[in-house]
């Protein structure tokens, strides 16, 4: 895939849109506590802002029931949250985060069944892309944006289609998606996102040094990536989820017309509603969906 | 063929009168061998069937002994006397079969594939391509000459190359020279007072093109009224008279000799053509074009000194020709282009070809009836230069070739990943908190960090150091394994000979596999034989690969074996498929008793 460094960036100004995972179920069972990770992450944001005067950071919270903008370094509203203990920007971020969590809790409908469900990653990714589009249309001078995903929740197969669509539109707009996965398992979506858009994916081994990982790998701006070597992933998990049951599959059936993926053979594709060669009603269509082997 | 060789006892005679040397005559598909019974005899014969042209034999019913006479290309003959007529018959049949087969082979020397017909141009293209590309030549030698692939199969996949070669040939026609070749200077011989003119067909062509009256005269007078030599003598006499600009003398001579007069008069064909052309002038261009605009035949273009418009000495005016007229006519002919293309040996042939082309063009002009359309046609023909046009390939989407290292790097530790995945899937983490509890704990964390500020230090130095080390190591490891220079490949680090051998083996494997997989499913016996041949050739590659691996110095052995592995895999897959299909065949054909494939 065309990697971001291959495009020539004239300077090293960053506009980073960070998608912060705030799934409470994940954080309560993670080895790294939320407050610890917050200090790593907030210090990282400050570091980015100090690297260059023109750098910008936008934070979107990926909640359990909703997503929202938490922080924008370019906005002027940050002055109102003064707190002697920490930098002004961090305190405003925390304030907003708290408000978001309250709102998010109120939107909860059902009791959790013990399994950790995924956060609304597709929603926050789409919001990030919309924000980036607004930046693109804002005027001539703007730094080239990139997206950084700090995720820990597992992948939600039901979001497969939305996430893939977002990934492809990011690829089209040449916005690299970096991802740092701090959960226990592997995230196929994040790996695919980084692979397709030309970003970098990493799963830190030692979560106590999360700040160091962030600074070494994810602070690198797009211009410098042409000469700074970043770690390459050991393998990309290309598994998809089927369109009918949203299960993750690695062998399935594909409709030859619209390329939707199914786990069982269907006579008619539910996405495009047809099969090549429409017959009269009642007649069985004899075109077969083809098998795709999806594992790499 | 029932038998591939025939051996009979016979006597070999060089001539009819020769008593003959007894011995054994052995004939195989390739040659004839005669070994005399007496080892001391010098007579021995070893002739290839290629040289045998035909055979004659004595008839059975006659009283003559059974003789077989084989004639060869150089009109020599070999006579064999057999013991009885049945031997003669066998040999005769054999020779007949071989001759018939070789007859067909000699007509189409490269045919094994039933429908191919090669013409000389195609053969030339192929030979040229082979000479230019040594890699192609190596492949060709390796496979076609050793019989693994046939010519047709080899070239069937390379049609694009052949087309490209074919289009390189020049298709433009050479035009006439701008120099006035028709105005030739003779060589004079001072002693005998003779002048000699050298006429080549090129010059003759130009003379006929420029002076259609001369052309017409040639066609009518030669060879009926005068010989060609006479014709040209008169022509050059007329030219001489023109050059002296002595119109009175010219008029005098014209009055005597009517043929000479033809050369001296104004060219009436030209005049009538000019008049015709004026009629065709597009009225949107020039409404007033009329006969008065035809002035090229007038001396001085009809412009007289001191405004004098009278034409005196009309009679002698007919025999004047000015230089500007000649030059203009020549220029007009050059711009019209060459009407005939081929080379000619003979003046008569030239004249006739030119007349033919004129007839065709006038026929076309009459039948069309639409002169402007013809003019447009001619314009488009003249402006479109065939060999400057681009090749009309079908519109193809351009290839977008990504750096393959990206893909292969990411496939490195696949086994590791899948096993890791299997483990972690079983240990799905459970969370037993309810919603308020979970959110509450999050909010607690936020408030704690708000009150206490950030953790001091954010990251412990030794942890940071560890992380940094691990990252740097992993990055440098991948770099070391793949290579520092992204453009450099493993092949470049091998010794040159090994690299070339490996590349050559790889291209030959590709060629074999291409033909192998294209032959499946096997429907005819031709494909069956072809697949067998290919499989044998593929099995021969394994020892070559082993040899290369052995010849490489030890520091490269690992890399070479990594490179060789996909070759092995490809060959193994093909041979596996072959064996599976053979097995399937044999189980199927077990039902058919005669083993028909």
UniProtKB/TrEMBL annotation, chain A:
Belongs to the TFB4 family. Signal peptide: none annotated. The keyword 4Fe-4S does not apply. Keywords: DNA damage, DNA repair, Metal-binding, Nucleus, Transcription, Transcription regulation, Zinc, Zinc-finger. Its main location: nucleus. It is found in: Nucleus. Component of the general transcription and DNA repair factor IIH (TFIIH) core complex, which is involved in general and transcription-coupled nucleotide excision repair (NER) of damaged DNA and, when complexed to CAK, in RNA transcription by RNA polymerase II. In NER, TFIIH acts by opening DNA around the lesion to allow the excision of the damaged oligonucleotide and its replacement by a new DNA fragment. In transcription, TFIIH has an essential role in transcription initiation. InterPro entries: TFIIH_Tfb4/GTF2H3, vWFA_dom_sf. Component of the 7-subunit TFIIH core complex composed of XPB, XPD, TFB1/GTF2H1, GTF2H2/P44, TFB4/GTF2H3, TFB2/GTF2H4 and TFB5/GTF2H5, which is active in NER. The core complex associates with the 3-subunit CDK-activating kinase (CAK) module composed of CYCH1/cyclin H1, CDKD and MAT1/At4g30820 to form the 10-subunit holoenzyme (holo-TFIIH) active in transcription. It holds the Pfam family Tfb4. This is General transcription and DNA repair factor IIH subunit TFB4.
Automatic annotation (TrEMBL), chain B:
It holds the Pfam family PH_TFIIH. Keywords: Nucleus, Repeat, Transcription, Transcription regulation. Residues 112-166, 191-243 form the BSD domain. Residues 357-376 have a biased composition (Basic and acidic residues). Residues 353-376 are annotated as: Disordered. The keyword Transcription applies. InterPro entries: BSD_dom, BSD_dom_sf, Tfb1/GTF2H1, TFIIH_BTF_p62_N. SMART domains: BSD (SM00751). The keyword Zinc does not apply. It is found in: Nucleus. Gene3D superfamilies: 6.10.140.1200, BSD domain. Belongs to the TFB1 family. This is BSD domain-containing protein. It comes from Hibiscus sabdariffa (roselle).
């Amino acid at each position: 895939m065309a990697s971001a460094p291959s495009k020539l960036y004239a300077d090293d100004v960053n506009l980073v849109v960070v998608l912060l995972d705030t799934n409470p179920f994940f954080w309560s069972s993670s080895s790294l506590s939320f407050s610890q990770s917050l200090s790593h992450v907030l210090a990282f944001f400050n570091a980015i802002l100090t690297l260059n005067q023109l750098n910008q950071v936008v934070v979107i919270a990926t909640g359990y029931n909703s997503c929202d903008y938490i922080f924008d370094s370019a906005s002027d509203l940050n002055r109102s949250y003064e707190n002697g203990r920490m930098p002004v920007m961090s305190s405003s971020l925390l304030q907003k985060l708290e408000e978001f969590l309250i709102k998010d809790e109120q939107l909860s409908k059902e009791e959790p069944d013990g399994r950790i469900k995924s956060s609304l990653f597709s929603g926050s990714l789409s919001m990030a892309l919309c924000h980036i589009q607004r930046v693109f249309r804002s005027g001539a001078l703007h730094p080239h944006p990139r997206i950084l995903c700090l995720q820990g929740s597992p992948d939600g197969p039901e979001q497969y289609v939305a996430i893939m669509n977002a990934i492809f539109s990011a690829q089209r707009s040449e916005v690299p998606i970096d991802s740092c996965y701090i959960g226990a398992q592997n995230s196929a979506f994040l790996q695919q996102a980084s692979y397709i858009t030309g970003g970098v994916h990493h799963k830190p081994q030692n979560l106590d040094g999360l700040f160091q990982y962030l600074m070494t790998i994810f602070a690198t701006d797009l211009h410098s990536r042409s000469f700074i070597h970043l770690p390459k992933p050991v393998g990309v998990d290309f598994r998809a989820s089927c369109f009918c049951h949203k299960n993750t599959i690695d062998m399935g059936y594909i409709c030859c017309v619209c390329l939707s993926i199914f786990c069982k053979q269907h006579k008619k594709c539910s996405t495009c509603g047809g099969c090549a060669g429409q017959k009269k009603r009642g007649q069985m269509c004899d075109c077969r969906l083809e098998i795709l082997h999806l594992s790499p | 063929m029932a038998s591939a060789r025939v051996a009979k006892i016979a006597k070999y005679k060089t001539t009819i009168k020769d008593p003959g040397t007894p011995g054994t005559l052995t004939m195989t598909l390739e040659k004839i061998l005669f070994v005399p019974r007496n080892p001391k005899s010098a007579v021995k014969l070893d002739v290839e069937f290629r040289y045998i042209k035909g055979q004659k034999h004595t008839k059975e019913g006659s009283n003559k002994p059974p003789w077989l006479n084989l004639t060869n290309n150089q009109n020599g003959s070999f006579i064999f006397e057999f013991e009885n007529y049945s031997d003669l018959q066998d040999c005769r049949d054999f020779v007949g079969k071989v001759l018939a087969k070789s007859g067909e082979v000699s007509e189409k020397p490269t045919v094994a594939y039933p429908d191919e017909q090669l013409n000389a141009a195609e053969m030339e293209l192929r030979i040229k391509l082979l000479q230019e590309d040594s890699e192609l030549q190596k492949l060709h030698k390796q496979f076609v000459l050793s019989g693994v692939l046939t010519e047709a199969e080899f070239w069937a996949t390379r049609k694009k190359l052949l087309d490209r070669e074919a289009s390189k040939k020049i298709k433009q026609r050479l035009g006439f020279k701008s120099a006035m070749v028709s105005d030739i200077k003779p060589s004079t011989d001072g002693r005998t007072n003779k002048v000699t003119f050298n006429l080549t067909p090129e010059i003759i062509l130009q003379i006929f093109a420029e002076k259609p009256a001369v052309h017409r005269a040639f066609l009518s007078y030669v060879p009926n009224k005068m010989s060609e030599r006479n014709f040209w003598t008169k022509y050059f006499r007329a030219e001489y008279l023109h050059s002296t600009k002595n119109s009175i003398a010219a008029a005098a001579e014209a009055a005597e000799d009517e043929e000479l007069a033809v050369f001296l008069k104004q060219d009436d064909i030209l005049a009538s053509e000019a008049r015709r052309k004026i009629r065709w002038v597009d009225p949107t261009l020039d409404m007033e074009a009329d006969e008065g605009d035809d002035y090229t035949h007038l001396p001085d273009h009809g412009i007289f000194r001191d405004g004098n418009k009278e034409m005196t000495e009309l009679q002698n005016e007919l025999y004047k020709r000015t230089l500007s007229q000649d030059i203009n006519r020549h220029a007009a002919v050059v711009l019209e282009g060459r009407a005939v293309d081929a080379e000619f040996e003979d003046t008569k042939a030239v004249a006739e070809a030119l007349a033919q082309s004129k007839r065709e063009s006038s026929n076309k002009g009459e039948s069309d009836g639409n002169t402007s359309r013809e003019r447009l046609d001619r314009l488009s023909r003249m402006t479109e230069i065939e060999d400057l046009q681009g090749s009309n390939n079908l519109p193809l989407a351009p290839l977008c070739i990504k750096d393959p290292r990206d893909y292969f790097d990411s496939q490195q530790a696949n086994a590791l990943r899948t096993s890791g995945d299997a483990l972690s899937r079983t240990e799905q983490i459970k969370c037993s908190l309810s919603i308020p509890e979970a959110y509450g704990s999050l909010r607690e964390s936020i408030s704690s960090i708000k009150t206490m500020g950030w953790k001091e230090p954010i990251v412990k130095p030794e942890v940071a150091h560890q992380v940094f080390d691990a990252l740097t190591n992993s990055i440098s490891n991948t770099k070391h394994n793949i290579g520092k220079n992204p453009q450099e490949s493993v092949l470049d680090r091998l010794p040159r000979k090994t690299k070339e051998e490996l590349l050559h083996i790889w291209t030959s494997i590709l060629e074999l596999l291409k033909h192998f997989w294209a032959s499946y499913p096997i429907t005819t016996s031709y494909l069956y034989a072809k697949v067998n041949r290919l499989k044998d050739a593929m099995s021969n590659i394994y020892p070559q690969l082993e040899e290369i691996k052995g010849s490489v110095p030890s520091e490269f052995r690992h890399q070479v074996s990594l490179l060789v592995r996909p070759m092995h895999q490809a060959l193994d897959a093909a041979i596996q498929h072959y064996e599976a299909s053979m097995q399937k065949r044999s189980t199927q054909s077990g039902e058919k008793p005669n083993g028909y494939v």
